[in-house]
Automatic annotation (TrEMBL):
GO terms, biological process: non-motile cilium assembly
Places the protein is found: Cell projection, Cilium; Cytoplasm
Species the sequence originates in: Chrysolophus pictus (Golden pheasant)
Main location: other
Residue intervals of the BROMI N-terminal domain: 12-138
Superkingdom of origin: Eukaryota
Name of the protein described by the UniProt record: Protein broad-minded
GO cellular component: cilium; cytoplasm
Gene3D superfamilies cross-referenced by the UniProt entry: Ypt/Rab-GAP domain of gyp1p, domain 3
SUPFAM superfamilies xref list: Ypt/Rab-GAP domain of gyp1p
Pfam families, per database record: BROMI, BROMI_C, BROMI_N
Amino acid sequence: MSQFTNEDEALLQSMLRQLLQSVKEKITGAPSVECAEEILLHLEETDENFHNYEFVKYLRQYINDALGSVIEEESEKCTSTQNQSEVSGYDTLVQHVTKKTRESKQYREMMHALKNVMMVVVESLINKFEEDRMCNKELDSKTKKKCQSDYYTDNYSDSDSSFNQVNICVVCLTLQVRQEALQTLCLAPPSDVLNSECWPNLRKHLTMSLSDPDEIFSEKILRFYAKTFSSSPFNMTREVYTSLAQHLEFYFLSGEYSLRISSGLDVSNADINHILKKVRLLNEYQKEAPSSWIRYPEKYMEEIVESTLSLLSVKHDPNHPASSDFLSPIYFLALLDIKAIWFKKWTHAHYSRTVILRLLEKKYKSLVSISQGYFYMFLVFCFVLFVRAIPYNEQKFFYTGSELQYIYFVHSLCLLGRLLIYKQGRNLFPVQLKNKKDCVSLTDLLVLFTQLIYYSPSYSKEALTAHTDNYSPASLVMEILQVFCDQTGCATDCLYTDAVMDALLKPLQSLLNGTEVFINCLETTLIDVADILARIAAAEDGLSVLLYGGNKNSAKENSPTAVHIIVQFTKKLLHDDISLLSGSELLQVVKGAFIFVCRQMYRTCEGLQMLIPYGLHESIGEAWKKASLLSERVPTPATGADSTSSISLDSKNIVLWEETLLDALLNFSATPKGLFLLHSTGAMSDCVSFMFNSLSKKHQTNEHEEFDNGVIIAQMATTPTAAVALQSSGFIKAFVAELWALLECGKDDVRITQPKSTPVDPIDQSCQKSFLCLINLLTYPAVFELLSKQDIPNKPTYSHREVPTDIINIIDRIIILNSEAKIHSLFNYEQSHIFGLRLLNVLCCELNTLLLLETQYKVSQVLLTAQEENVTEASEGPGDFIVDSLSVERNHVLVRINLIGGPQERILPLRALDKGSDPYPWPMFSSFPLPNCYLAEVPRKADFRQGTYKACKYCRFLAELIEKFVLHLSENRSNCYFSVGRYEAIDADVKKENLSSVQQLGIEMTVRYGKHLNLLKEHAENELCFVLMNCEQFLKQQQRAVVSSLRCLQGCYAGYDWFASSVFLIMSGDGEKTLTFLQQFSHLLVSAFLWIPRLHMSMHLPITTVESGIHPVYFCCAHYIEMLLKAELPLVFSAFHVSGFTPSQICLQWITQCFWNYMDWSEICHYIATCIFLGPDYQVYMCISVFRHLQQDILKHTEAQDLQVFLKEEALHGFRVTDYLEYMESLELLYRPMLLKDMRNIRVQNT
């Protein structure tokens, strides 16, 4: 390049000219210079011949000669071994070499030389272009002579001069001159036209020319406008848009426009067709403008909005006799955009919506009034004329006045529906209508909306199937109301009022009362009403409106709330007691729709409370039994046959109806009391099978239903009947197989491209969900039904392909690993065993489960043996324990299961290693007793001043107090809820061996705990044996004989009596006093909820309740705990729902074991005393107080996705009953009447 000759310059010029000639079409077609630059910059991507151009070949060779050596040198450096860690990967290598090359001296010299050469070449090419331009200038001067004007000045640029000439010619009287000028204008780039200095004058003339009588000329102007819209930026097109809108506004206000609504509209007429073209051009731009106007100043957008609203507000003088018949611009816009898509797009973004709503409020509120006025007009049409809803996609050339009004009505309906979504739009109401004295409020408008659902005309079935777009008022209003339901603020302002609810429920009320119903299509209307009601019920505020009315404080006593009307109507539907619907093809669809509305209510505790008196579960259960009998007659499809041909439509409908009813019944199990009601229908097993089949097929849940299947499973696992149903349905087997696949096999559909990373967490993330589900599933009632009297397989050999099928196999394979065969059968031994140990740790937090596992499978001994074997080899004496993940987990479990105590009464070793020289300071052990370091120090008798533990003196005082209080209540017949016969205690010399192994182990644990607290003396075991044996005999006198397949109903109470043991400790180990107290206490209502074994198979309960195996603590107390939790601590309730866990499950665990291991002994005493002195409802308030205390921890662990583990494993640190007494008293004021009423009804609970 340093020896650049003339020949080189000529060669480069020819190469560059060839390149520009090849891309000439692409460049000249670009709308602007910037677009042309973009085309050239991306030419390599768009031109397949790019690398064949001589100029490109020349540049590539030149760069290679100048920089080839630099690139090779940098590449070698990067690929060398010493720089391998610095640069890795092809992309990174290229980036590194490119960067180093551009920073090199050779690159700078090359760019400097290339720039100098190309400047010379380009300058030569520009000179040649100048010669061509001068030729064009001579042609322009000839054109100027055709139209001379005094307005022309020589200081314009060439393009401006041309546009100025066009500006003059456009207003010339000669049509030919105007057409030629417009042709010149259309050939020029729109951006050049709009940027020229003469554009303001040209714009005025173009606006005037839009009214030109010559159709061809005005058509060309519209084409120029269209071209400008499509190829110019927003800041330029706004002027064209406002010009067109201004022209139309002037035209509609001019005297030459005389179209009337009553005359109809013939769109084939040339003049009308031309107006429609102009309005369509506006409408097309309206739809496109929002995508770009946010990038420009707000004033640009405001100009467009204001010009549009000004045009749409055009109307005749009110005093004009034909003012009401005036065919205004909005009719033409409605004809072209019937659903007001333009307005939807304009209000979508806050940026533009704010401007539109501000202008509507300040200057154009009449638009809202006019639109709303058409609702009243249309209702008159509905009642008097019954105007047909036109199929809008039908080809038409003439629209009658009625059809025009209907089209405008639809447009107004869609516009108002969009307007009401937003708070500022709702603030435009109330509005004053022309022909009404009173203002129309927002509620009035919504009542009209709902009336349109059942009073407006609708399509016939044939029309509905023939047309894809339905413009009937009912379908349009439904779309709007559905959107309202999904917007919380909008639904509150618009729908959650008594007036709107009354309007929605009017057809139901009429059908219930037997009054005449004026509805065109009753079934469709009812389905639509049910859809809106279901959406309302899905929201918390909406559910409250349905249950209690729009205003709880001013609710009308004589008018029932919506829930009562809905459930009564649903029951009548289920009993086929509505004559107008008998024989209808859509009857089952209507039934299903209203069952779904009820389901949205009864899946909540407060909703279920309102529905219980109506016995809806019984009606649904009866309907299911009838449907089940019919479905049994449906033939099974033949193998290989087409299912659509082998089963008739009626048979499919029967099966679908049965599934609908099963789904409805299944959702009763969302709450504790609902699950109890589900058992009474006899459909428990079928519902669980239906749920399992649905989950297996991965059915999608309804979009309006936010219910989680995990919650249902957690509720079911808390009751023995449902747990057995989960086992028999195959759910547990499938779940165990899926879990095993995750633990041992991994996912089959994952393509292995690199070795799987070693899990860092104790439980791998892929197994976390299954771990939590297993915790939800294995409550004590479920564990007892699934594992009681089940032996561990302990096979001599296990195959790698042998997959567990139930819970006992899981325990055998990953928890009790007591043989080499089990260890060698695992692919991921450590990961799977840690999973099992973590599961065991959570299960043993429930003390009854711990006693069962320990007595049946000797879990402690298995873990101790494993610890004993996990030691280093030593030449002398025992070796040291090997600290690894498994030994740490085993040590934690061993301490937990062998030590009873609250947060300050025992010390649990951590399951994580510390940094430093001693990573695990906790002593390990392979035999009992436990090292003393795990026992918290308890103050002795001399330390009772302000210690946490009140020990003996406190217990003696409390024992004396509750003894006298219970004796006083039991002597008064009015205070005795249960009538109990006389009982003589058996001999005090009771052998421990006469008790079950579970009771024996429970006694050992109780006595060990009592001695640790300094409450018991020697020989306390015999005293406690005496108490438990007599309690068992005493309660047995009040039990009824039950024949049941449930294991929990085949003998004495399945668990350990933790309440009797607690009273025994309070009485300082005095067996006689304990037994006397319990006998007196058994007369009181509170005994039913504090003393869990008290009502085991009790004759005081209805037989149906006994046969269910469900304790009143669950279907009564736990139910109200969930209900109050939702009202008092909504965040905590939502956290449970999100976690797929239930408050009832953890509360039942706390209550069953009297908060042992969760509270310190002093707080346990406070809990028992509070419930005895203040009433059984305080048990509910106590649990709510605990949740309030744990609120922040619950939210934190919900986010960490381990809420179940936290609540079951962690004690209640820092919780003191006395701190929450005031709060519990406030709950009592609100809820006591309701709670005590339901608690007293457990004897007659038959709903």
